[in-house]
From TrEMBL:
The modification N6-(pyridoxal phosphate)lysine is found at K300. It comes from Aquibacillus salsiterrae. Belongs to the SelA family. The gene is selA. The lineage of its organism: Bacteria, Bacillati, Bacillota, Bacilli, Bacillales. This is L-seryl-tRNA(Sec) selenium transferase. Coiled coil: none annotated.
Length: 475
């Protein structure tokens, strides 16, 4: 193949070709970008010819020039593809951490866009005409929504935990039950974040049981805090015991300056118990039990943008706001806009109707059944075997691990390819479709599919099932 080296055209020859103009127009890129990519591809092909790694068969159908242009086209198409992009979540898992957790309400999206487009009063007090604080913008709404004396917002809940430990318990002892030393999503570990913060972890109790006296016996003059962590992504069952927040509060009240802080993880503002889903307490119930501080995510059950919300006693929140780290962990105007509108939706009683997270978790069987029927009807294809089934979906995002909500799904077998191959093709389709696999079948769970996505979903399946020249396919 080395003789082909002499056939590699110089870049300037390609630059003056019609094809160059066509490519420039197609991808709307300046000439110099295209020249650079041509040069890269020529270099790569030269190397492959020298190493003899370029497939000989390619030359049965294509000339060297064709191959160069195909690769240039491919690289430009890849570049043009949005890097962060919407995917169709067919897993049924509403709070899918890998798929961006909560979807925002239309109202929240509108508010974010409006604030992003113009200047804003982010740190400007319009009443007094002087510098304001971004902490003041939605504190009132947070207090209203949680019943707390004071509140603030940081980048995410991990940041909230870190700030609280660092600002209030550095070089002091923090008591945590061994049953609550959790790891969430592989990157948040209570013990590690504690170490990082400079607070000293004091473990009490056992994995399955921790009693009030365990906490009581661990209190020394160096104890600053009792931390209760919501065991978000697992459930201990059987012979278990943990101490209720109000008992910890009573215990702490017998000691000066002992803070009770609860990391709620998800922190729900909607009472899922009222629709018989799980036993997650609402934030207000925890605040009412008298804890000093709680923190929770903005983009889990709350259904808002990524954020960490801290609520509780004014004394502590004031200290947190003043800490240098609060500046490091602060949120931007878009987050505040999205969170503000999400909170307003709760306060106006519209969560079930307007917040996609809540709406999807309580989505009715009838709607999902309709979608499943529509899908099966429209996807009528010889190569496909489709079955409608009743099953369960998970809430996800490390929330309500023991709760399975009844759902309607369709199982799919595509003749001639494995479920894994079908899933791989769907994932690489534009728009990508992310599915579950169960018993060697691809599963589409309609809990997380919106009506407006149905058309793309069906088109995506038809597209990947009927295409036969798939490259780079693994089993
Ligand atoms: C999810 C979670 C966190 C981390 O929250 P992020 O908002 O993802 O940073 C911390 N603690 C608990 C208990 C959680 O469930």
């Amino acid at each position: 193949m080395k003789h082909l080296l002499r056939e590699i055209p110089p870049v300037h020859e390609l630059q003056v070709s019609d094809k160059f103009q066509q490519v420039m127009k197609k991808f709307d890129q300046p000439a110099q970008n295209i020249t650079k990519i041509i040069q890269n591809q020529i270099n790569a092909i030269r190397e492959e010819l020298i190493q003899e790694t370029l497939s000989k068969q390619l030359f049965n159908n294509y000339s060297l020039i064709d191959i160069i242009w195909q690769r240039v086209d491919g690289q430009l198409a890849d570049f043009a593809q949005e890097k962060i992009t919407n995917v169709i979540n067919a897993t049924g898992t509403v709070l899918h951490t890998n798929l961006g957790r909560a979807r925002l309400s239309n109202q929240a999206i509108d508010h974010i866009v409006k604030v992003a487009r113009g200047y804003s009063n982010l740190e400007y007090n319009l009443k007094e005409g002087k510098r304001g604080s971004r902490h003041d913008i939605i504190e009132g709404l947070l207090k209203e929504a949680t019943g707390a004396e004071a509140a603030m917002v940081v980048n995410n809940n991990a940041a909230a935990v870190y700030l609280i430990l660092r600002a209030l318990a550095k070089e002091k002892e923090v008591i945590v039950s061994r049953g609550q030393l959790v790891e969430i999503g592989g990157s948040f570990r209570v013990s590690s974040i504690m170490e990082e913060s400079g607070a000293h972890l004091v473990e009490v109790g056992t994995t399955n049981k921790t009693h009030l006296y365990d906490y009581e016996q661990a209190i020394t003059e160096d104890t600053r805090m009792i931390l209760k962590v919501h065991t978000s992504n697992f459930k201990t069952i059987g012979f278990t015991e943990s101490v209720e927040t109000d008992s910890l509060v009573s215990l702490a009240n017998q000691h000066q300056q002992l803070i009770v802080y609860e990391d709620l993880g998800s922190g729900s503002l909607f009472d899922f118990k009222s629709v018989r889903i799980g036993d997650e307490p609402v934030v207000r119930e925890i605040i009412n039990s008298g804890v000093d501080l709680v923190s929770f995510s903005g983009d889990k059950l709350l259904g808002g943008p990524q954020a960490g919300i801290i609520a509780g006693k004014k004394e502590w929140i004031a200290q947190l706001k003043k800490h240098q780290l609060a500046r490091v962990l602060r949120v931007d105007k878009m987050t505040l806009a999205g969170l503000e509108t999400t909170l307003r939706t709760y306060l106006a009683g519209g969560a079930e109707e307007h917040l996609p997270t809540i709406r999807d978790i309580i989505k009715s069987r009838e709607i999902m059944e309709d979608q499943a029927n529509q899908f099966v009807h429209q996807l009528n294809h010889d190569l496909l075997d489709l079955q409608i089934e009743e099953s369960f979906s998970q809430v996800g995002g490390g929330t309500m691990p023991d709760v399975e909500v009844p759902t309607v799904l369709v199982t799919i077998i595509s003749k001639g390819i494995t479920a894994q191959q079908l899933a791989n093709r769907l994932r690489q389709h534009v728009p990508p479709i992310v599915v579950r696999i169960k018993d060697d079948k691809v599963v589409v769970d309609f809990r997380t599919i919106e009506l407006r996505e149905m058309e793309d979903l069906v088109a995506g399946f038809l597209d990947v099932v009927t295409k036969n020249n798939v490259t780079n396919e693994t089993t």
